[in-house]
Write a structure and sequence with these properties.
By secondary structure, the chain is of the alpha+beta class. It folds into two domains: 22-147, PurM-like, N-terminal domain (60s Ribosomal Protein L30, Chain: A, 2-Layer Sandwich); 155-349, Alpha-Beta Complex (Phosphoribosyl-aminoimidazole Synthetase, Chain A, domain 2), CATH 3.90.650. 35% of the residues lie in helices and 23% in strands. The protein has eleven helices and twelve strands. The strands form two sheets. A seven-stranded mixed β-sheet has the order 7-9-6-10-8-11-12, sandwiched between helices. Strands 1-2-5-3-4 form a five-stranded mixed β-sheet. A hairpin with a 2-residue loop joins strand 11 (316-320) and strand 12 (323-326). Helix 2 packs across helix 3 (100-119) and helix 4 packs across helix 5. It is globular and about 60 Å long. The two termini are 37 Å apart. The relative contact order is 0.16. Bound molecules: magnesium ion. Residues 35, 79, 82, 225, 227 line the site of magnesium ion.
């Protein structure tokens, strides 16, 4: 790939950061580069915005208009949760193409977005819509939020020795997409089909970990959401914190459907590189780890310690049994890889030995 996006999203963000450099943190504010911007002043409001383009981020043959509404909202709420904040208000920018097929999709999309906003108790307070002449449906959501006590939590607060904690399980959404695209097949056996449906639902209707945000605001030293996959998002947190890191493969919470339906090495690869799980990854000082895990359990959020931050010179490592491998930053980068990713993407750059590509079970 050539052109302005040739080096991927992180390089492009770095360019933006340089071009729009603000005089260091004006009155407590924070510019480009975290899950959300932090506005100066009190209260310390956070703002995130997200762009979704048909053909690049979603396809209507795999995603109903109502699913698109939920995904778009939850992806933004996840960035708010990743600041240790609660959502305050939603703004919607919409370019909806002309034509009968596109018009039929608009009403179910809007109805589902209204339902999702009500369910999350976050009002839609404004925006802008245009009838696009042709081409891709495009939506841009912006969400503002207010930090919980102890927040906002940035990516940059981690220290060597901090434990790395991840909520939920990883790889389910990427498996769901692979199933919907027919890249993975399962048997007709009822148990396998149920697992496959659950994975597809993880892709179609992700759920941001808003319930975890208060506990993380109080105790985490650094925080990021896993939108592009642990492979990319963990190095982002570590780099912002000026740290290296080590993850133990045996501690990774692999999505149960991926663990059942795929060979172990493929399931692990999805857990490392599958994007769009919208789980949270936190760095936590060792003395606060037990308290954090207790509080997360109390609000019904599963969480696991998967490794720790190290001094920067250690780089990134994945420990599998007695073997330690260099971490290869790979995952879902919309500017570099388009929508291709997951099971067969970037196999040559895998942190794992190239394994079988067939599903083992189901
Ligand atoms: Mg994020």
């Amino acid at each position: 790939m050539t052109g302005p996006f040739a080096h991927g999203e992180d390089a492009f963000l770095e360019r933006l950061r340089r071009r729009f450099a603000v005089p260091a943190a004006p009155r407590g504010g924070l510019g480009i580069g975290d899950d959300a911007a932090v506005l100066p002043g009190r209260p310390r409001r956070v703002v995130t915005t997200d762009l979704l383009v048909e053909g690049q981020h979603f396809r209507f043959d795999l995603l109903a208009p109502a699913d698109l509404a939920v995904r778009a909202l939850e992806a933004n709420l996840s960035d708010i949760a990743a600041m240790g904040a609660q959502p305050e208000a939603v703004f919607l920018g919409l370019a909806w193409p002309r034509g009968a097929a596109a018009s039929r999709r608009l009403e179910p999309f809007l109805a589902a977005l209204a339902r999702a906003c009500r369910a999350r108790r976050v009002p839609l307070l404004g925006g802008d819509t245009v009838r696009a002449p042709q081409g891709a449906t495009t939506l841009a959501l912006a969400v503002t939020g207010l930090p919980h006590r102890g927040g906002p939590v940035l990516r940059s607060g981690g220290r060597p020795g901090d434990a790395l904690v991840v909520t939920g399980a990883l790889g389910g959404s990427a498996l769901g997409l692979a199933l919907l695209e027919g890249r993975v097949r399962v048997s007709r056996e009822a148990g396998a089909r149920r697992l496959a449906e659950r994975a597809a639902a993880r892709y179609r209707r992700p759920r941001a970990r808003l319930a975890a945000a208060p506990a993380l605001a109080a105790r985490a030293s650094a925080l990021i959401d896993l939108s592009d996959g642990l492979g990319l998002d963990l190095p982002r947190l570590a780099r912002a914190s000026g740290c290296g890191f080590e993850v133990r493969a045996d501690l990774l919470p692999v999505d149960p459907a991926a663990a059942r339906l795929l060979p172990p090495d493929e399931a692990l690869r999805l857990a490392l590189r599958g994007g769009e799980d919208y789980e949270l990854l936190a760095a936590v000082a060792p003395g606060r780890l037990a308290g954090l895990l207790r509080r997360l359990a109390a609000v019904g959020v599963p969480a696991a310690a998967i490794g720790r931050l190290l001094p920067a010179r250690a780089g990134g490592r994945l420990r599998t049994g007695g073997t330690v491998r260099r971490w290869v930053a790979a995952g879902w980068d919309p500017l570099r890889t388009g929508r291709s990713r997951g099971l067969d993407a970037a196999a040559s750059r895998s942190v794992l030995p190239a394994g079988r590509r067939r599903p083992a079970a189901g």
